Amino acid sequence: MKLSSRIRAIPSPAGNAWAIYERAHVLKAQGVDVTMLTIGDHDHVTPEPIIAEMARSARGGHTGYAALPGTAELRRAIAARAGEGVGPQNVFVTPGGQFALFCALIAMLDPGDRAAIVDPYYATYPLTVRSAGGEAVIARADPERGFQPDLADLADKLQGARALLINSPNNPTGAVYSRETMEGIASLCRAHDVWLISDEVYDTQVWEGEHLSPRTLPGMAERTVVIGSVSKSHVMTGFRLGWMVAPEEMVRAIWELGVSTTYGVPGFVQDAALYALEYGAQIEAEVTALYRRRRDLAVEALRGANGLRLSAPQGAMYVMLDIRATGLSGVAFAERLLEEHHIAVMPGEGFGEAAAGHLRVSLTLEDDRLVEALQVLAAFAGELARG
Predict the structure, then answer these.
(1) What biological-process GO terms show up in the record (predicted)?
(2) Distances (CA, A) of 82 to 85, 204, 301
């Protein structure tokens, strides 16, 4: 029997972006003490008040089918968070921001349509475009430009495209797109009549500059879909609670997709997210402060290191390290770092060609161990560069 062309087209031609992560887990299962600095998952549990609210909701009976687009209360809270001009009718709640991204692309693309993404990109973006039947075209944001998109290149890639997907604050680079960049992107979207998907799951983690949602720019609300979640802001990655903020017509159309796929998000999970958004301001502030502190510790620990270069991230919970001076690819460096020092990081090649020769390091380890691991990594890079 033969699998469909669509399912066979999903995997990345560049290979498995999570290969190092998976290898690290094999070593851990064998009893090796591996320092995990790979995926963007918190190193501490969801705060107790949120868990208690989820348990209260479940015990209170909210365990049946919940409202498919999201409960009325949660949609109102998300709309309020999104800002002026957004109402509950513009919100669709999904099992995680990743599924919201998939829904948006399904709503925008016909089979074979082109969607532009900016390289470096989050590793799932090309896969999600292909899952929706589209073709991903790549615009570059080179390290020499601070990983800000090249608007001239982007204009070329938008020729004949139906959609553009951006992510600021950016995973993996930590770049926060400037107002000039965002206004340029908005102008291109209007000129080429394309949809814009703005992945803003790191909007609470801004260390330099300011977060600007392109939805707020003139003429963009009717063509922009914003992706959000409570995963990063409230330590709720495993709750799988995300959303899309979109034109009302798209939200209505997505309902049938929800019926035929996930049939919604559990009510007790939605109630936990509602509590987080309405009463979790202190939790959110503490999470933001934690990653700001770790970002600063990482910058200081790597200051003056030989064999690597760090551009201080402007946002998100990662640092991106340029290790091209070692003569190794990001994949080769990450493999040797894991085998020789039992430290697991993500090679840049998993995030696109512009990230080749880089490493993405998650700041998901308590302060002392994080600094120690970064110092070992820096010393290893120095040895390789001298050799």
Answers:
(1) amino acid metabolic process
(2) 9, 12, 36
Q: What residues does 318 pair with on adjacent strands?
A: 362
Mean pLDDT of 188-217: 97
pLDDT value, residue 358: 96
Helix 72-82 and helix 267-279, axial crossing angle in degrees, nearest 10:
40
Q: Is 148 helix (H, G, I), strand (E, B) or coil?
A: coil
- DSSP secondary structure, 134-146, as one string: -EEEEEE--GGGT
Query: Beta strands 318-322 and 343-347: pairing type?
Result: unpaired
Q: Is the pLDDT of residue 16 over 80?
A: no
- What the chain holds in terms of domains, given with CATH numbers, is 5-45+282-386 (3.90.1150.10), 64-279 (3.40.640.10)
Task: Report yes or no: 142 and 150 within 8 Å, Cβ to Cβ.
Answer: yes
Q: Please give the single-letter amino acid code of residue 182.
A: M
Distance CA 40, CA 237 (A): 9
- The Cα–Cα gap between 219 and 99 comes to 26
Whole-Å CA distances, 363 to 41, 246, 347, 383 = 9, 31, 15, 23
What would the pLDDT profile of 71-118 be if each residue is shown by its tens digit?
999 999 999 999 989 999 999 999 999 999 999 999 999 999 999 999
Separation CA 387–CA 381 (nearest Å):
10
Rg (CA), the chain: 21
- Residue pair 345/334 in contact (Cβ under 8 Å)? The answer is yes
- End-to-end CA distance of the chain, in Å? 52
For every residue of 118-172, DSSP letters joined together read EES--TTHHHHHHHTT-EEEEEE--GGGTT---HHHHHHHTTT-SEEEEESS-TT
Owner of token pair 């003429």: 219
14 confidence band (pLDDT: 50, 70, 90): low
